[in-house]
Protein backbone atom coordinates (compact mmCIF):
# COMPACT_ATOMS: atom_id res chain seq x y z
CA UNK A 1 0.00 0.00 0.00
CA UNK A 2 1.37 3.41 -0.94
CA UNK A 3 1.53 6.29 1.54
CA UNK A 4 -1.24 8.08 -0.37
CA UNK A 5 -3.52 5.03 -0.22
CA UNK A 6 -2.78 4.64 3.48
CA UNK A 7 -3.57 8.32 4.15
CA UNK A 8 -6.89 8.01 2.28
CA UNK A 9 -7.82 4.87 4.20
CA UNK A 10 -7.16 6.63 7.52
CA UNK A 11 -9.15 9.73 6.52
CA UNK A 12 -12.19 7.61 5.59
CA UNK A 13 -12.55 5.98 9.00
CA UNK A 14 -15.92 6.23 10.70
CA UNK A 15 -14.52 5.57 14.19
CA UNK A 16 -11.57 7.34 15.80
CA UNK A 17 -8.28 5.97 17.04
CA UNK A 18 -7.06 7.19 20.42
CA UNK A 19 -3.62 6.76 21.95
CA UNK A 20 -3.32 6.73 25.72
CA UNK A 21 0.29 7.05 26.75
CA UNK A 22 2.29 7.92 29.85
CA UNK A 23 4.92 6.70 32.24
CA UNK A 24 4.36 3.12 33.45
CA UNK A 25 2.00 3.17 36.43
CA UNK A 26 -0.07 6.20 35.38
CA UNK A 27 -3.20 4.13 34.73
CA UNK A 28 -3.17 3.68 30.97
CA UNK A 29 -4.53 0.15 30.89
CA UNK A 30 -7.26 0.80 33.45
CA UNK A 31 -8.42 3.91 31.59
CA UNK A 32 -8.34 2.12 28.23
CA UNK A 33 -10.48 -0.68 29.63
CA UNK A 34 -13.03 1.82 30.99
CA UNK A 35 -13.16 3.73 27.71
CA UNK A 36 -13.39 0.56 25.60
CA UNK A 37 -16.32 -0.62 27.72
CA UNK A 38 -18.21 2.67 27.43
CA UNK A 39 -17.47 3.47 23.76
CA UNK A 40 -17.10 0.13 22.00
CA UNK A 41 -13.56 1.01 20.89
CA UNK A 42 -11.17 -1.93 20.80
CA UNK A 43 -8.47 -1.80 23.48
CA UNK A 44 -5.02 -2.62 22.12
CA UNK A 45 -2.48 -3.14 24.89
CA UNK A 46 0.77 -2.87 22.93
CA UNK A 47 2.88 -4.25 25.79
CA UNK A 48 0.73 -7.37 25.89
CA UNK A 49 0.85 -7.64 22.08
CA UNK A 50 4.66 -7.45 22.18
CA UNK A 51 4.75 -10.50 24.46
CA UNK A 52 2.03 -12.51 22.70
CA UNK A 53 3.23 -11.94 19.13
CA UNK A 54 6.98 -11.78 19.76
CA UNK A 55 7.27 -8.14 18.65
CA UNK A 56 10.56 -7.76 20.47
CA UNK A 57 14.29 -8.31 20.19
CA UNK A 58 14.66 -10.28 23.39
CA UNK A 59 14.28 -9.85 27.12
CA UNK A 60 16.29 -7.42 29.24
CA UNK A 61 17.09 -9.28 32.45
CA UNK A 62 18.18 -6.16 34.31
CA UNK A 63 14.90 -4.32 33.75
CA UNK A 64 12.74 -7.43 33.55
CA UNK A 65 11.11 -6.23 30.33
CA UNK A 66 11.09 -6.92 26.62
CA UNK A 67 13.17 -4.88 24.19
CA UNK A 68 10.48 -3.82 21.74
CA UNK A 69 10.94 -4.00 17.99
CA UNK A 70 9.28 -0.81 16.72
CA UNK A 71 9.13 -1.96 13.09
CA UNK A 72 7.37 -5.21 14.05
CA UNK A 73 4.88 -3.26 16.18
CA UNK A 74 4.09 -0.86 13.33
CA UNK A 75 3.68 -3.70 10.83
CA UNK A 76 1.40 -5.59 13.24
CA UNK A 77 -0.89 -2.61 13.90
CA UNK A 78 -1.07 -0.85 10.51
CA UNK A 79 -4.13 -2.65 9.09
CA UNK A 80 -6.04 -2.67 12.36
CA UNK A 81 -5.54 1.04 12.98
CA UNK A 82 -6.33 1.98 9.39
CA UNK A 83 -9.89 0.74 10.05
CA UNK A 84 -10.36 2.94 13.13
CA UNK A 85 -12.24 2.23 16.33
CA UNK A 86 -9.21 1.53 18.53
CA UNK A 87 -7.84 2.77 21.80
CA UNK A 88 -4.11 2.07 22.00
CA UNK A 89 -2.30 1.72 25.31
CA UNK A 90 1.50 2.11 25.34
CA UNK A 91 4.14 3.83 27.45
CA UNK A 92 5.74 5.44 24.41
CA UNK A 93 4.24 7.34 21.52
CA UNK A 94 7.00 8.47 19.21
CA UNK A 95 7.12 5.18 17.29
CA UNK A 96 3.59 5.52 15.90
CA UNK A 97 2.77 7.45 12.70
CA UNK A 98 0.89 10.68 13.32
CA UNK A 99 -1.85 9.67 10.83
CA UNK A 100 -2.94 6.83 13.11
CA UNK A 101 -4.46 8.93 15.88
CA UNK A 102 -7.22 11.46 16.24
CA UNK A 103 -6.52 12.04 19.93
CA UNK A 104 -3.38 11.52 22.02
CA UNK A 105 -3.81 11.50 25.79
CA UNK A 106 -0.80 11.72 28.07
CA UNK A 107 -1.54 10.55 31.60
CA UNK A 108 0.35 12.24 34.42
CA UNK A 109 0.56 11.10 38.03
CA UNK A 110 1.92 12.63 41.23
CA UNK A 111 5.37 11.18 41.91
CA UNK A 112 4.54 9.87 45.38
CA UNK A 113 1.49 8.03 44.06
CA UNK A 114 3.46 6.77 41.06
CA UNK A 115 6.29 5.52 43.28
CA UNK A 116 3.84 3.50 45.37
CA UNK A 117 2.18 2.02 42.27
CA UNK A 118 5.52 0.95 40.76
CA UNK A 119 6.72 -0.48 44.06
CA UNK A 120 3.51 -2.56 44.32
CA UNK A 121 4.25 -3.93 40.85
CA UNK A 122 7.56 -5.23 42.17
CA UNK A 123 9.75 -2.98 40.02
CA UNK A 124 13.43 -2.90 40.99
CA UNK A 125 14.61 0.37 42.55
CA UNK A 126 16.58 1.43 39.46
CA UNK A 127 13.48 0.99 37.26
CA UNK A 128 11.29 2.90 39.75
CA UNK A 129 13.81 5.76 39.88
CA UNK A 130 14.07 5.99 36.09
CA UNK A 131 10.29 6.01 35.69
CA UNK A 132 9.87 8.67 38.39
CA UNK A 133 12.52 10.80 36.65
CA UNK A 134 10.70 10.27 33.36
CA UNK A 135 7.53 11.62 34.98
CA UNK A 136 9.32 14.55 36.65
CA UNK A 137 10.90 15.66 33.39
CA UNK A 138 7.64 15.13 31.44
CA UNK A 139 9.46 12.94 28.93
CA UNK A 140 6.33 11.29 27.55
CA UNK A 141 4.51 14.61 27.23
CA UNK A 142 7.49 16.11 25.39
CA UNK A 143 7.67 13.03 23.16
CA UNK A 144 3.99 13.49 22.28
CA UNK A 145 4.49 17.19 21.52
CA UNK A 146 7.37 16.34 19.18
CA UNK A 147 5.42 13.55 17.43
CA UNK A 148 1.86 14.88 17.01
CA UNK A 149 -0.05 18.01 16.17
CA UNK A 150 -0.64 20.07 19.34
CA UNK A 151 -4.41 20.23 18.82
CA UNK A 152 -4.81 16.47 19.32
CA UNK A 153 -2.69 16.20 22.51
CA UNK A 154 -4.32 16.42 25.92
CA UNK A 155 -2.56 16.01 29.25
CA UNK A 156 -4.72 14.36 31.93
CA UNK A 157 -4.11 13.89 35.64
CA UNK A 158 -4.42 10.29 36.79
CA UNK A 159 -3.94 10.26 40.55
CA UNK A 160 -7.17 8.71 41.77
CA UNK A 161 -10.20 6.64 40.87
CA UNK A 162 -12.14 9.91 40.57
CA UNK A 163 -9.60 11.17 38.00
CA UNK A 164 -9.95 7.91 36.09
CA UNK A 165 -13.75 8.10 36.01
CA UNK A 166 -13.71 11.77 35.01
CA UNK A 167 -11.16 11.10 32.27
CA UNK A 168 -13.22 8.18 30.98
CA UNK A 169 -16.39 10.32 30.76
CA UNK A 170 -14.44 13.10 29.05
CA UNK A 171 -13.10 10.68 26.43
CA UNK A 172 -16.53 9.11 25.93
CA UNK A 173 -17.95 12.57 25.18
CA UNK A 174 -15.07 13.31 22.80
CA UNK A 175 -15.75 10.05 20.90
CA UNK A 176 -19.45 10.95 20.55
CA UNK A 177 -18.55 14.40 19.23
CA UNK A 178 -15.96 12.98 16.82
CA UNK A 179 -18.47 10.48 15.38
CA UNK A 180 -21.14 13.15 15.09
CA UNK A 181 -18.77 15.47 13.24
CA UNK A 182 -17.69 12.63 10.94
CA UNK A 183 -21.32 11.86 10.03
CA UNK A 184 -21.90 15.52 9.14
CA UNK A 185 -18.92 15.63 6.76
UniProtKB/TrEMBL annotation:
Reaction catalysed by this enzyme: AMP + ATP = 2 ADP; ATP + H2O = ADP + phosphate + H(+)
Annotated region described as NMPbind, given as residue ranges: 45-68
GO biological process, one term: rRNA processing
Source organism superkingdom: Eukaryota
GO cellular component: cytoplasm; nucleus
InterPro entries xref list: Adenyl_kinase_AK6 (IPR020618), P-loop_NTPase (IPR027417)
HAMAP family referenced in this protein's UniProt entry, alphabetically: Adenylate_kinase_AK6 (MF_00039)
Quaternary data: Interacts with small ribosomal subunit protein uS11. Not a structural component of 43S pre-ribosomes, but transiently interacts with them by binding to uS11.
Protein name per the record: Adenylate kinase isoenzyme 6 homolog
Record organism: Diversispora epigaea
Amino acid sequence: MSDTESEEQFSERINPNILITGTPGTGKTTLCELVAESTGLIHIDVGKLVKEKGLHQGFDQEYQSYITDDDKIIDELEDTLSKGGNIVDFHSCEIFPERWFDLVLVLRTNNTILYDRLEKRGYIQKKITENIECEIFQEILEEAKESYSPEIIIELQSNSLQDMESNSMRIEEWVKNWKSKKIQE
